[in-house]
Amino acid sequence: MPRPFYGLSLQQKFLLITFLGIGLLTLSLGSLAALRSHHLLHAAVEKQGRILAQTVAALIINELIYEKLGLIEEGGLIDNYVREIYGRKDLDFLYVAVLDENNRVISHSDFSYYGTTMGSAIAHEAGMGEEVVVHRTRDQEARHEVLEFAAPLSIGGKRWGVFMFAVSLADIQLATRLLTAQIVAVLVLALLAGLGLIIMLNRKFILPITTLAQAMQEIDSELPDRKVEVRGSDELALLGHSFNNMIDRIRETNLAKKRAHEKLLQSEKLATLGILSYRVAHRINNPLGGLFNCLWMMERQGHDPSFRQKYIDLLREGLESIQETVEQLLRTAGKKGSHEREVPVADLLARIMRLLDYRMKDSAISYHSQVDPALVLPIPTHDLQEILHNSLVNAVQSMPNGGTLELTIQKREDLYLMEIKDSGVGIPVAEQEKIFDLFYTTKGDQGTGLGLWMTSELVKKYKGKIRIESAPGAGTTLIISIPEA
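Below the sequence we write its predicted structure tokens.
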């Protein structure tokens, strides 16, 4: 924007911008109206030409058939049709011609063309088709547009030739220019009248509106109390009253929004606390199941020292898992430093399987695994244990009548790939998209809807991906990929 523009008053800027805007609008409307008028006139001529081409072509075909049968003199009636059409005044015909199947002129409005061959593209196109062909060209000498029409003379697969004529659009172009001039004149008069009205309204209302604009700029965005002085009872006074009422409503709305935001924050805190409680309870409940199994086994065979020692070790591992959950909660709250060490996956997996051993034997589930004994994943031990434990428990629960559980963990290029495959009941396609949702479970009252959700959240935490492949009755494969740190 040029610098002199910034030195103009608000009134001068308003007048200048309004004048330019109305001028551009006037020019645009005039151009659109002219184009629309030209298009309508052109479409009308083209429609009339198509109808004429189809009608006369049908008459010529009849005459050609009669000539072939020897019922009428050759060329007589066709020449009459050509002369009659060329002499019409409703369209500005440049020529009218009838060609035979070899594009040789057998009748023409200009007799000098008789017997010559016309190799125009439109004649060739019409001769090969079944519909009327229309081409728009330009007469370079007269400098006006021309519409050429060509209708095939064919019936029952037999081609007799082409009926052609050309129509000048000079009259349409002239009518369009005259209409454009009239439209522009009307719009210019409207522009001048509108500009005069704008000047009058600008002088009368610019000062009150400027005052109102300044008041709006001085409003405090959070709790506004700036109001304007209202005088009189006209529309501007009504606007002032509305502005003052708006200030009151904004203030009340902001206060209500502030209170609602505080309640929302409190609700979010409670919701977060509830989810955290569910996660902690779920993590503690997992080893508790194994601990109760150990106690039950010790009650039955606790007299055997080696047997008892084995399950005492399992009890210790389960309690250590619960202790790690509590320590992790303290680390999340910032009350305790982190000192988790990395453990080979095979060792961690053996610890989990000892806790699941009784449940798998009770359900007649066989287990196979392929894990490198030295493989270590870039995930803290407690989180990796949670991922594996939740995934394996979910697989075991899907095989109440026994089956096979297969686990493979390996490194492929820069990814760690885990596959947990069971031969259980499978998951319907409609439920597969919701299987990782919070609180969604397919186990009824026996499920919490936390296990796979927690697993999915932990995988995402380490920028991994998790998905399932399953079908009802065909088992389920849980596939987890973790990128190398």
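The first strand starts at residue 93 and ends at 100.
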